[in-house]
Design a protein that fits this description.
Chain lengths: 117, 210
């Protein structure tokens, strides 16, 4: 990235450092601000991180997958979005790739990720 | 019309207060030097000429060098004239004066961006003019999927009209985009962040107008 571009992206340093370090395979709990009219409330979304895209840029996003009532749900979040309130790491997973798309084809026990020692 | 000359750095995104991601382009604009001031008496109209970027001295003709010497500045790479140029603090612009991006624009302004679009080579009508191609993939069709279709009548007028849209060189042309919002200005680094995309590749010259 151009040095000049870093001047612009440095403005989001504080937002970035607010969140813990997490990787694909980790189980995290994302607190999302939801605006309903004038009211604001927090919704939580807990699941496994299956990828992080465009790292160290303003456009960085991550995808969280969870299985709810037997249906897989994936949600993408922009890391620097002001709508994110908090990210908690619940469990560190041990995986051998950066993008865990293979989880989509697996169910139950096969979709389990070993915990990092 | 006020404006400034700059160079495209690249694209990024920022977040608005309501949480939306805005795609935007970073441009290094200025500092530019006023290389000529035209007025009504000598030229019949009012305008100023700005110069931007360094040009190697051995690549400058003597005529050009004389022109830059008049403004007591080094040879510039790009020069561009702006009619009825106006800046906030001083309507009178002096020869040789340095103009920075913060003098011309402020946050929230709407600007036009001019650049040379990326060259795409010889392209067919689907890419060049957004034609839809002819017919279907199946049902006996073959090789018509990206074809232009009919280009005119056979017996009457028995010629092809001028300006008929056909395949050809695409891109590499001067393109002007209107009404891009200025998101932010960084006066120390001569940077300006505008919403949306700007024509051209990275490091290509961009002219911003207001």
């Amino acid at each position: 990235m151009s040095e000049l571009m870093k001047i612009v992206e440095a403005e989001y340093k504080d937002v970035r450092s607010k969140y813990p370090d997490f990787k694909a395979g980790d189980t995290i709990n994302v607190h999302v601000k939801i605006r309903e009219g004038s009211k604001e409330r927090i919704q939580q979304f807990q699941g496994t991180v299956i990828q992080r895209r465009h790292p160290n840029t303003n456009g960085e996003t991550f995808t969280v997958r969870k299985v709810s009532n037997g249906i897989g749900i994936e949600r993408k979040f922009p890391l620097l979005s002001p709508n994110l309130d908090k990210i908690e790491v619940i469990r560190r997973g041990s995986v051998r790739r950066a993008r865990l798309f293979y989880l989509r084809g697996l169910q139950g026990k096969a979709a389990k990720i070993r915990e990092k020692k | 019309m006020s404006g400034i000359i700059g160079r495209k750095i690249g694209m990024t995104n920022v977040f608005s207060e309501d949480g939306r991601s805005i795609a935007c382009t970073l441009i290094q604009a200025g500092p530019c030097v006023v290389t000529q001031v035209k007025n009504e008496e000598t030229d019949g109209y009012r305008s100023i000429q700005l110069g931007y970027g360094e040009r190697k001295e051995k690549r400058t003709t003597k005529a050009m060098k004389g022109h830059f010497d008049k403004a007591s500045t080094t040879p510039k790479k790009v020069i561009k004239e702006f009619r009825n140029f106006r800046i906030e603090f001083n309507n009178e612009v002096q020869l040789g004066q340095e103009i920075t991006v913060a003098d011309v624009f402020e946050e929230g302004d709407y600007v036009d961006a001019i650049g040379i679009s990326k060259g795409k080579g010889f392209q067919g009508v689907v890419k060049r003019h957004n034609f839809r191609g002819v017919g279907q993939r199946t049902h006996g069709q073959h090789n018509r999927e990206r074809a232009p279709g009919s280009i005119g009548g056979a017996s009457s007028p028995s010629r092809v009209f001028k300006g008929m849209r056909m395949a050809g060189q695409t891109g590499g042309k001067r393109v002007k985009l209107l009404n891009l919002r200025v998101i932010k200005i960084y006066p120390e680094d001569h940077l300006i962040l505008v919403s949306g995309a700007v024509p051209g590749s990275k490091n290509s010259t961009v002219i911003l107008e207001k």
